[in-house]
Amino acid sequence: MTQLARQAKTAARQLSTLTSEEKNACLESMAMALEENRDTIKRANEQDLSAAETSGLSGAMLDRLKLDEKRILGMAKGLREVAALPDPVGRLLDERVRPNGLKLRKISSAIGVVVIIYESRPNVTADAASLCFKSGSATILRGGKEAIHSNRVIASLMVDAAQKEMPKFPAAAVQVVQTTDRDAIRELLSLTSYVDLCMPRGGEGLIRAVAECSKVPVIKHYKGVCHVYVDRDADLRMAGEIAVNAKVQRPAVCNAMETMLVDRQIAAEFLSSIAQRLSMHSVALRADSEARDMLKNASSKLRVTGASEQDWSTEYNDLVLNVRIVDGVREAIDHINHYGSGHSDCIVTGDETRAQQFLNEVDSAAVYWNASTRFTDGSEFGMGAEIGISTDKVGARGPMGLEELTTYKWHCLGNGQIRT
Questions:
Q1: In sequence order, what are the residues at sequence separation of 6 or more whose Cβ sits closer than 8 angstroms to the Cβ of residue 90?
Q2: What is the value of pTM for the model shown?
């Protein structure tokens, strides 16, 4: 691990000499390599899928692991989107001249060495490597053991393509940890002389384990307990479309809705209208007593059980949904701030005053008015590929793209000034 980190530190310094044009040319070559070697990637992924099925990996995790034609082409598209974005390094963020004539310039700069720890999703290998590379940082990638063959092949193809395009590209700019031993993570994250930042992506257990053992800074979100609140002045057709999309479009991701809150004044009408749609998608409901009675009356096909106190703060990553009836926006906000995870939350309403109250008072990284929580994503926010989502309040918050992967330094230009 020490050798890996030392190599990354050297590579990071070499990356600082590359121009924007050189970075973009490398990214284009990487994208072409992924497209031209789709069969190689799929063969490696099939090895991982076969082993994962044998080990009893869940259906949701198998879906995250799978790389089909569409997802491989999506990785290549993501690389090109990153290439098309402005270079985040070297931007003038602030400029001032002090009374003594000292000129100060705040300039965006690369972080250095970034460790990415993630589970199942091998497309993260391409996303993370491309974003770190474009922002001038070297990447050490530690994927889960279930995706080791896919991750190795993707990283190797990207490095080989970049070196063919530009021989001075440092091979250690993108490295995959070859061992699946968990002790390697603890060792790697103790190397504060070489590693500058860690970003874990995965379940709450993984992220907490990384945060607790790391000696380097960690950007994280523990889980996505996302809410949709249907207000008394909501367009109920719109509310139904948003709620169904937020729950079922892709239930295993962190920006999927886990709890639906409904204003008591329209609860009977709205739950009656949405019950059939939820049952068609085989959504199991956990509801408070009032909502449970309404839902059972609305559809005999729905699976409805009582919600426990723990359910309100649970991220299911599955076709399971909590339902609670509340007395207005104040109670909805209080519920979200108490049980939510600070990820993504939505109000559906036609009342602007209530919407602004919700937007201002819900303490989450992304707060929506009349739109699905599923949009909390770097690509959907126009950032290109996304390296992760942060619910931290210091530093990056929400989807993290290129700009969030930089730090800054001060350039101080004088002509002999001394402090008295």
A1: 107, 108, 109
A2: 0.85
